[in-house]
């Protein structure tokens, strides 16, 4: 058909360079010059660009409050890198952040490519080839971007360096941030770790002068940090009788006020689905996944029960399988239910949901965020995808629904993660000319992580929390290893883990100069059964990672392999469940 149109002069065939066509299609935004920086940004940028010109390794920890203009500092450093004829890698924690990052970077640079798993195979292969051939100036993407084959790399930037998503939980179990620091050291180039709430490990490294600390203490244009209102859900009345535990009267009033000013609202709830579990009111049995020791989540639109860990799904039962009672209670709340209830409260507003269920199609992240940026969406409901890094000046209110679930996870990082998440969410508002406001709906308004986040006080929080870590010999004051023993036979896993525990304790006597050591377990993992495997785990704490490797090598070397049993070793784990 195309050839026929050419033959009849309806189309004209023109040959152009393939790379020129690619970058011409990518660069659809007019290039902007650098914007005016404030004094703090100028000072920080000069420190980093001087190191870029020097071309020597240095790890910078850029601690800047939300809205302080960290991205502009990154842009200045990258511009200096490109002028030196070298390339830059920008790592972001979430694929959802990639469209916004690309948009802002395309306003300054032309030769940019994106690398992430949601790209089509052909596009990812094309981008990878362009990077390897040195035809790209800037590479943007999540943790795997650290392996981009840049032939002349001159700078690495990691935005939101504290994020757990930089750690890969399956083989190979690497941490993108740590690999990036190692790569920068090997190539003798600078690396910038940026965050409003740095990880305790990075903060500790900066305090020991292993990293160079840089600070942006105020927002651009001297904008104030938004006030945070703590709503005690034990006493606060709901917006309506059907919304107990979801939307308080205080939050509803705040939303009305923000929307009446033609502002936008973001509501954060870190749970997908409609109801988070189903329970029999008679025998109290909860509908669990048959493959995992986890409750199945009800998704109303698909009318299914879904396990968010193994992916198993089934139709919800009309009666209890244990006692045969016909009355089944749907409990808990997820983003799907929140979206439906908000639509009842604000029927004249455009409401959209952004979570892993609503963004399965390629380009769906960009579609939702672009619509929100253009003001086509009034209220955006979402999970962690909307919690960090996004910059929308017209957001006048952020509401956090039930932040308490993260506090009670059996993990020593629970408080740290809660503080980081709340701080990042709160930072999404008050970035424009109109002041913003934040509501934390919580049953624990006195918890240190929630109180500190409400005050935007990272320093006080980290100073207090890190004392507990030190007293208990937890990271960043030690290196941690987790060994998971899993088998479909609970007895086999238990026997092997007990023997491994004995061998690990015996091995401590064989390692000279090991320093302080601590072994916890073996014991059942918090989620004992996962994907039909019964799981036990052991935690090892040591002052040096070399001691961990020796200890594990000696102990496992004396163990006999068992068919059907797996041993998983994770150094510096971020998932202890």
Give your account of this protein's structure.
This protein has 16 helices and 22 strands. By secondary structure, the protein is an alpha/beta fold. It folds into 4 domains: 22-221, P-loop containing nucleotide triphosphate hydrolases (Rossmann fold), CATH 3.40.50; 223-274 and 333-468, Rossmann fold (3-Layer(aba) Sandwich), CATH 3.40.50.300; 286-329, no CATH class; 479-571, Ribosomal protein S10 (Alpha-Beta Plaits, 2-Layer Sandwich). The strands form 5 sheets. The chain has a 7-stranded parallel β-sheet with strand order 3-4-2-5-6-1-7, sandwiched between helices. A 6-stranded parallel β-sheet has the order 8-18-17-9-16-15, sandwiched between helices.
Characteristic key phrases:
seven-stranded parallel beta sheet, 577 residues, Rossmann fold, 4 domains, six-stranded parallel beta sheet, alpha/beta, 16 helices, 22 strands
């Amino acid at each position: 058909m195309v050839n026929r149109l050419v033959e009849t002069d309806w189309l004209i065939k023109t040959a152009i360079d393939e790379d020129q066509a690619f970058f011409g299609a990518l660069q659809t935004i007019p290039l902007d010059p650098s914007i005016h920086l404030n004094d703090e940004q100028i000072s920080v940028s000069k420190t980093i660009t001087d190191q870029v010109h020097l071309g020597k390794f240095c790890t910078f920890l850029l601690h800047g409050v939300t809205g302080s203009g960290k991205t502009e500092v990154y842009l200045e450093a990258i511009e200096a890198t490109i002028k030196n004829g070298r390339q830059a890698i920008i790592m972001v924690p979430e694929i959802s952040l990639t469209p916004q990052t690309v948009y802002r970077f395309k306003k300054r640079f032309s030769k940019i490519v994106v690398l992430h798993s949601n790209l089509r195979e052909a596009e990812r292969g094309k981008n990878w080839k362009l990077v390897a051939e040195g035809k790209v100036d800037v590479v943007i993407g999540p943790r795997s971007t650290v392996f981009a084959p840049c032939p002349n790399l001159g700078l690495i930037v990691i935005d939101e360096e504290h994020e757990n998503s930089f750690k890969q939980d399956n083989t190979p179990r690497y941490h993108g941030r740590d690999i990036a620091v190692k790569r920068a050291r090997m190539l003798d180039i600078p690396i910038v770790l940026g965050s409003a709430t740095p990880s305790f490990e990075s903060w500790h490294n900066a305090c020991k002068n292993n990293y160079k600390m840089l600070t942006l203490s105020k927002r651009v244009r001297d904008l104030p940090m938004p006030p945070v209102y703590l709503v005690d859900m034990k006493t606060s009345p709901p917006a309506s009788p059907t919304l107990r535990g979801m939307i308080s009267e205080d939050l509803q009033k705040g939303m009305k006020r923000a929307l009446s000013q033609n502002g936008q609202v973001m509501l954060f709830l870190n749970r997908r689905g409609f109801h988070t579990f189903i329970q029999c009111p008679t025998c109290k049995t909860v509908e669990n996944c048959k493959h995992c020791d986890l409750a199945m989540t009800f998704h109303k639109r698909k009318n299914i029960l879904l396990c968010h860990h193994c992916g198993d799904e089934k139709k919800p039962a009309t009666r209890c399988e244990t006692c045969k009672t016909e009355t089944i209670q749907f409990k808990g709340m997820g983003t799907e239910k929140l979206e439906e209830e908000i639509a009842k409260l604000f029927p004249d507003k455009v409401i959209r949901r952004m979570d892993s269920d609503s963004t399965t199609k390629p380009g769906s992240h960009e579609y939702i965020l672009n619509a929100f940026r253009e003001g086509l969406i009034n209220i955006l409901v979402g999970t962690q995808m909307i919690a960090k890094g996004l910059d929308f000046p017209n957001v006048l209110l952020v509401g956090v629904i039930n932040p308490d679930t993260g506090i009670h996870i059996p993990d020593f990082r629970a408080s740290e993660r809660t503080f980081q998440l709340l701080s990042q969410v709160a930072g999404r508002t008050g970035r424009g000319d109109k002041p913003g406001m934040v509501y934390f709906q919580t049953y624990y308004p006195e918890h240190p992580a929630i109180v500190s986040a409400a005050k935007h006080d990272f320093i006080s929080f980290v100073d207090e929390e890190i004392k507990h870590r030190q007293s208990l010999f937890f990271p960043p004051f030690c290196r941690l290893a987790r060994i998971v023993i899993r088998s479909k036979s609970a007895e086999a896993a238990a026997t092997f883990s007990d023997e491994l525990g004995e061998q690990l304790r015996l091995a401590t006597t064989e390692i000279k100069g090991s320093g302080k050591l601590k072994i916890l377990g073996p014991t059942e993992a918090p989620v004992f059964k996962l994907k039909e495997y019964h799981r036990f785990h052991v935690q090892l704490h040591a002052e040096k990672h070399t001691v961990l490797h020796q200890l594990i090598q000696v102990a496992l070397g004396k163990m006999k392999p068992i068919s059907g049993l797996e041993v998983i070793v994770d150094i510096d784990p971020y998932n202890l469940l």
